[in-house]
Design a protein that fits this description.
Blueprint: E1 4-18, E2 24-33, E3 40-49, E4 54-60, E5 65-67, E6 70-78, E7 95-112, E8 116-126, E9 134-151, E10 157-168, E11 171-179, E12 188-195, E13 200-202, E14 213-222, E15 228-232, E16 237-254, E17 258-268, E18 286-293, E19 299-310, E20 315-318, E21 327-330, E22 334-336, E23 339-341, E24 343-350, H1 356-361, E25 366-375
Antiparallel strand pairs: 1-4, 1-5, 1-7, 2-3, 2-6, 7-15, 8-14, 9-12, 9-13, 9-16, 10-11, 10-13, 10-14, 17-25, 18-24, 19-20, 19-21, 19-25, 22-23
């Protein structure tokens, strides 16, 4: 159903079967576009075709434009006859000419295009921002995937996107986009944002041999409209996918080794915030500092600076941990059947290993703290 095809490459193959009992010589022929210009596609002459013989000749169509209506011309032929010998003439015998156009590589075509995939891409994507980590699974707490699709094709396109090894509400993450036909010389586009929140991602790659890596499938398809449309290799389809503002709420993998700074931060000391006036002098006191760890990796906390602040009197008392030690190690959390069992570690303080008595006698209603945590 094509009107014209402009070719990067292609071959016109002509086979001539001579059923006659005499040879044919100087068989001249041409193949032309049957238009006002009568563009010549092929012009050739076969010097000799023996009786009962079949000859095949091929000509390149590279750089040619073929129209749907072609014209075959016979320029002439001759025969040396039977060289004085008697031959049997069968009027059903003939010169049979077969034309085949093969191995076409179009540059452009004006035709009714059949339904077909123009994009079929399966590829892997490494999640950014995971440097130093080797994650094999993650649940996205929040984040988006942004799509920008552009096309110069003068036909409508449907795009399907899927992350097979993912789960969102019991189904792999996927979406479909419809892109209208581009106007002549113009560009059609579609832009959307999809919520990634709550998505479970397998991050081992397509062959389960990587980390921080998902794999996805992108399909772009033309659905046959029955309309005559011109497409060429100058046309393009651009699909841009960006995952932005990803926050992982749960992850499995190797978190590597890293030191993270804590604070300086301030928090309200709930137990003493309701004391509005007065003073107290303690000779004995005890307190406990708890480190709560829901991560499946052990951690060592170093406490650089803890201060109790009484905002009513503007008095500040630092907590002296020189005797008790300012390092706390907490074991990794465990997980069973999807349930996390956190670990905790405690630093017990008394007047014998710290100045907790003076610290609390200040009646602090706020605490400022600073430190670091070393994960391995």
């Amino acid at each position: 159903y094509f009107e014209t095809i402009s070719l990067v490459d292609g071959t016109l193959e002509i086979t001539i079967e001579n059923e006659l009992p005499i040879a044919v010589e100087d068989f001249g022929f041409g193949i032309l576009n049957n238009n006002a210009n009568m563009d010549v596609l092929i012009q050739d002459t076969l010097d000799y075709i023996g009786p009962g013989a079949t000859v095949t000749t091929s000509s390149s169509l590279a750089g040619k434009t073929i129209e749907s209506n072609l014209l075959a011309e016979l320029y002439g032929m001759s025969s040396p006859g039977s060289d004085g010998q008697s031959v049997l003439i069968d009027t059903s015998n003939a010169l049979i000419i077969t034309l085949r156009i093969i191995d076409l590589k179009p540059f452009s075509a004006t035709t009714i295009w059949p339904a077909q995939n123009i994009i079929n891409d399966t590829s892997e994507v490494e999640i950014g921002g995971t440097e130093g980590l080797e994650l094999t699974f993650g649940t996205i707490r929040s984040g988006d995937i942004v799509t920008d699709i552009y096309s110069t094709i003068n036909d409508s396109i449907r795009f399907d996107y899927q992350i097979p090894e993912s789960d969102l509400n019991g189904q792999p993450f996927s979406f479909s986009e419809g892109l209208p036909a581009a106007p002549p010389g113009g560009v059609a586009s579609v832009n959307n944002t999809y919520d990634f929140s709550g998505l479970d991602l397998d991050l081992k790659g397509k062959n389960n041999d990587k980390f921080n890596t998902l794999w996805h499938i992108i399909l772009g398809r033309i659905d046959s409209t029955g309309l005559i449309v011109t497409l060429s290799l100058d046309d393009s389809v651009t699909v841009e996918l960006a995952m932005q503002d990803l926050v992982i709420g749960y992850a499995r993998g190797d978190f590597g080794t890293d030191t993270l700074e804590i604070g300086p931060e301030n928090t309200v000391l709930e137990g003493l915030k309701n004391v509005t006036s007065g003073s107290i002098s303690l000779t004995e006191a005890s307190a406990s500092l708890e480190i709560y760890n829901p991560i499946g990796a052990g951690a060592q906390f170093n406490l650089f600076d803890i201060k109790g602040v009484n905002t009513r009197t503007n008095q500040t008392v630092p907590l002296d941990l020189s005797t008790s030690g300012d390092e706390i190690f907490v074991e990794p959390a465990t997980e069973s059947g999807g349930v996390i069992d956190p670990e905790s570690a405690f630093l017990s303080l008394s007047e014998s290993n710290s100045n907790i008595d003076a610290f609390l006698s200040n009646l602090p209603d706020r605490i400022s703290f600073e430190g670091s945590v070393y994960l391995n």
